[in-house]
């Protein structure tokens, strides 16, 4: 498959211009562009610029609202409930995280419960926001109104892809664990359907229980270029890690869907629009009085793990966040690789909005 390599600045400018043309102000359009391109740089193409056409459609359909500010519904000092009011996730999630950071720096810990956020994208971004402030953070995310994933032992959709992220700020070695609780993120099925990386064995399941790697299982029939709608498919993505991943996905619904009061993936099924809920815990090691030990022990332990003899000498053992760090360095140099179909879909959206590509 031929990949185009788009320089980072040109891609960021194009995406920003698309969202300005779609009606966002410069700051919001810039945030969305930086976030999406940042996901590509981290190697998570599923949450990168491939999402542009869908985000624009959601804005045009009123499923997501430009220029929103997350509203604090409950303020308990070291905890808060915030309503994103269907604003862009790249706007309202950083606002909730900024509040969590400020309060954890005051109290030592803070729990924020964000609901009704538009798609917040790569959750690791928010763990990185906390790391930059010297905080540990834990994020449980659900997707209200989106059913895509079959629970362990089932063949029907019940969960969404419910990601979890944990960020740990070791000096010079930021650690970011960030993954979907589905065997693959939905965006990876999207990327595979646009000529990108193929899905791993057993990623999807047909209604009769047969395992599949064919994106049509999720999207039903679709054209090479153009939107994909999971509502048109009959199959499901599988939860990762058998009963354990399935249980974690279930708990994301409890924490990010029920406790935030934003709602779960069902049972009403697809509602036409989706919203992320995110329960975040922020922890300040400085307040715990163990900052020095935390850093010393953390770095020594990380080093010991890295020194583990690899099964394949060409594949050293990596820490959470290291694959993203490596890809970021490589892609910043060489540009963001995009399959032709994905690039054509972005350009089609840009052209429709009267935006010319700088490349
Ligand atoms: P993934 O399967 O690529 O796993 C990524 C995690 O595993 C990272 O923490 C990475 O550092 C670590 N990792 C990867 N390879 C490793 C190795 N060889 N050794 C050690 N650690 C390794 O991620 P995914 O499940 O495909 O998720 C992709 C992205 O999708 C995430 O950023 C997630 O936040 C995002 N997502 C968002 C939503 C949403 O609703 N907003 C939903 C689902 C997923």
TrEMBL record:
Q: Where is the composition biased (Basic and acidic residues)?
A: 324-333
The ranges of region (Disordered) come to 315-335
A Gene Ontology molecular function term of the record: oxidoreductase activity
By its UniProt entry, which Pfam families does this protein fall under? Ldh_2 (PF02615)
Q: Which Gene3D superfamilies match?
A: 1.10.1530.10, Hypothetical oxidoreductase yiak, domain 2
Homology family: Belongs to the LDH2/MDH2 oxidoreductase family.
What the entry lists under PANTHER family is as follows: MALATE DEHYDROGENASE, OXIDOREDUCTASE-RELATED
Protein name according to UniProt: Putative oxidoreductase
